[in-house]
Amino acid sequence: MPVKKGAEIAPAKGKLGVLLVGLGAVSTTFIAGVEAIKAELAEPIGSLTQLGAIRLGKRTDNRVPAINDFVPLTDLDDLIFGAWDIFPDSAYDAAVHAGVLEKELLNKLRKPLQKIKPMKAVFDQTYVKRLSGTNIRNGKNKLELARQLIDEIAEFKRKHRCDRLVMIWAASTEIFMKPHAVHRDLKSFEQAMRDNHKAIAPSMIYAYAALKSGVPFANGAPNLTVDIAALMKLANQNGVPVCGKDFKTGQTLMKTILAPGLKSRMLGLNGWYSTNILGNRDGEVLDDPDSFKTKEESKLSVLEYILQPEVYPQLYKDFSHVVRINYYPPRGDNKEGWDNIDIFGWLGYKMQIKIDFLCRDSILAAPIVLDLALFLDLAQRTGMKGVQEWLSFYFKSPMTAPGLYPEHDIFIQLMKLKNTLRHLRGEDLITHLGLEYYD
Question: pTM here?
Answer without folding.
Answer: 0.93
